[in-house]
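Incident log, structure service

09:12 report received: a user says their structure output differs between two submissions of the same chain.
09:20 pulled the input from the user's history:
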Amino acid sequence: MRTAVCVLILWAGGAAAQSVEGTVVDSLTGNGIPGVKVELVRLSESPGDDIITQIAGTASYSATTDRQGRFLMEDVKAGTYTARYRAANHIDEAMAPKRDVPALPKIQVPERGSPVKLAARMIPLGGLSGRVVDGRGQPVPHARVDFETGNLMGSQDTDKDGKFSEMQFPGDLSVLSAVPPSGWKPPDPDPDTGQARAWVRTYYPGVADEAAAQKIVGRPGVWQTDIELKLVAVPTHSVRGIVLNPDGTPAAKVPVAVGEDFFTPVVRAQTKADGTFEFPAVADGLWRVSSDVERGDTKLRAATWVLVTGRELEGLKLRLAAQVTVRGRVIMEAVQGRPSPKPPMLRLRAFAHGRMSEAAPPGWPDAGGNFAMPYFYPGIYRFDGLNTPVPGYYLAEVRLAESVLAAPDVEIASGALPLTLTYKTNGGTVRGSVESCGGGEVMLAPRDPALRWPQSVLTAQCDANDRYQIASARPGDYYALAFPADRSARIRFLEFEESMTGQAVRVELRAGETTSLDLRIPR
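09:34 re-ran on a clean worker, output below:
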């Protein structure tokens, strides 16, 4: 059973011509790697296009490396391209887990000239295999095993014997956890109190708290076997509520689910004739309670996040609703002497209690900046996906109808109120050096927690001279903090809490000005 991990592998450089040639070598041995699929993807000329969308596009040209790891593409038309490399047991060195997705690399191919020469190094993947058992030592089939290493994530279901295998990854494994399957036999009640218990997500080597999880140290090309994850049982409490139809009447005999996210319902139930439901054994934690119903061609949904903390939860109300369309406009500040860039993609994702879940399809503004995003259910949403920047611009303001949003959350009750997003160009810049940065990064986060939208927390990697620069930041007060090169920017953003501000340096960025700031990595 092989874990599927989708990785975008990139490299670019060299002179330019109508042919593109190069080599792909193993980063450990230096030997050429045969059978690597090399693809050139033609890029859009618009700087506002989303990087992931461009890189994931259809390949314009492709080739496969020979026994020496060499490849050749001929008759390549003039244009701007990026390259991706695909191999069964390797990953591009530039995409190692300690790094974040780089700026879009480009290959310029003019009409005439010498061949473009590319050279890529790939790291051999290591991996692990093992099994998931419950507290009784019984194998757990169909458990979901998740892993995370830097900016790579993947998952796999255990087989009928509770085993997972050929789970490939490069470098160290920062998180390994297992989720019990829905319907798995619950543990026995607590022997001392008689309180009901339930199996919960368990982190390696066998703890329920992610903060207590252990990192699995890996080496390229090395496999670890016989890893065991033993599910942990914790006390539970009941969650009770009612599901209502759109007109407010009780929704009888409709499904209800409790899960830790949109994808993995842990427990399922059905409402009674009066619309009420009960989950008698829910562990402490943050849970998504939802109901999805199809009536003819109409899909109805009700969903909310609840926090269970040591006691029963009663009186929960879920009201079914149909989908709406969110409309609005993106305004790009005009710059004299330059054409206005294409507005960036935008996305809204359901959000509550610090947790994001499902997202509707993204919005793609037209040439005039107008967009329409269908398939939204009423609820609280947070902007996500606005962190694909247009060079030189920053998000200055978001309005719902005539109201300026002071936080990244927006309540979608209907599609009647339009959204307006305004991008400006007079951002501030901060630059400086980081003592012994060693490929680490600097994060810039607004001091006001309400302004810490995903797109307003900016990062930059130190160069070979331990220097950094962050440009086009929204003017205002920030915390600046340097990190070593062993945590992804996503992890650092999630970790940025008030407890970290004591290690950070305060800096004020003014519109159109550059501020110098030297930093140290906290010990």
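09:41 both user submissions now match this output. Likely a transient worker issue. Closing.
09:42 reviewer note: The longest helix spans residues 489-495. The chain has five domains: 20-124, 126-230, 237-319, 324-424, 428-520.
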